[in-house]
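Q: Start with the shorter request: fold the first protein.
A: Done. Sequence, then structure:
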Amino acid sequence: MLKIKYFVEQHVFGVCTRLGEKFGISTASIRLYFVYLSFITIGSPIILYLILAFWMNIRRYLRQQNNPTVWEI
């Protein structure tokens, strides 16, 4: 079970981790609330999660374009 947990934490978008770091809340509690809200509201937080994941990836892409790591000699 721990292998699955570590795999998911490393290969998922990292939205809950990012929110936890930003607001100073534990990632486990954010994930737990996300699951509860998904059941209560019939999956609407999944749409919000995907939007946040898309936004985070776009920001990462734009930062890489603005700050290239290849140095010219």
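Q: Next, the second protein, separately.
A: Sequence, then structure:
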Amino acid sequence: MKDIFWLVSKTLRTTFRSKKNIILYLITPLAGIFIALLAYGGQDKVTTIGVVDHDKGIISAETIAFLRGLDHLKVEEIKDTSVTNKLTSGSIESVVTFEQGYSESVLAGKPDHIDITSIKGESVTGFIKTYLYQYIDNLTVIAAAVDGDSDQFMRMYNDYRHADFQLKTTALKDSSTSKNMTYMTVGFLIMIMMYSANNLSEIILAEKENRTYFRLLSTPVTAQKYIFSNVIVNMIVMIVQAVATLSLLSFVFHIDLNMSLWKALVVMIIFSLIAVGLSLVIVAFSNSRKSASGLSILLITPTAMLSGCFWPIEIMPKSIQKISEFLPQRWTLDTLTKLQEGHDFGSLNLNILILSAFAAAFFLVAIYKFSRNNSAKSFI
């Protein structure tokens, strides 16, 4: 035990001796938070739209008033000649144009003469259409009830607006943004943890290359203790990365994880074992640090992409989604997603079992390869 403690302290001193390693292992994992903030931090902003009213009717005026009443929407009446300039400059994100005949088409029960334009596409127009078309459908129903009589329509419409019944609304918290930010942050954290684990395991190869490893074996230190101490250091760094990232996400940036912090940490600790096990497999099959680094790049980045660490897995083809089911990163993200949806650990036994199986398989492969190493002074 004393030998292992000495090896752990030696490896930690070696690892954090340079500022470069401090940045690599402790600062880089936080990059996912800032990327998530850039990607999703501005989703609650107010959308500014322009309105061009060629119709000048009462119904078009009421429709514009309805748009003004929508939350997260700022309406600005503009002239037809300034539409292009305002769209291209970004001062407005969409333009709703009511052409001549809009009011008559609504009274006739066939809404027409309305156009929605945006250079940002469906991401902006979809939000406007959802509310606007539903409102116009309500107007069409009233018009059908009065058989197109404009005076009777306005009386019924005013009665509809000033009805005696009241509707109490309660705003529900939109958790989609925080879930997306958590997902992206954890996705980048997973990739960085895997690279960090590989770099720490490469210390084995580095000390073998500079003959430090062989000098250590001339002392009471055994190869098994040496490997085990490297695993302990690896796990310490992985756990610190997970705790620091998730804690900052929750307590500093106040982003709701939509699950208990300890549950997320348990999943990430299990993944830490997977990352360390895979790093040992890479080291076991490598003869030098360069080959280990090349093999890690070949394995980690593509599998992270296939697993959905950088984007939602749902946007990828079904064939790619099937491939991702054989990757531990995918199961880690799937477990965290289900925890966000309200599942407890009792219902996620299969996920936890699969993650544990990945970790066990990698460690067994690494142990087998080390034990079959026939080179002089083999690891085990």
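Q: Describe the second briefly.
A: The longest helix spans residues 176-209. Residues 105 and 111 are 5 Å apart (CA to CA).
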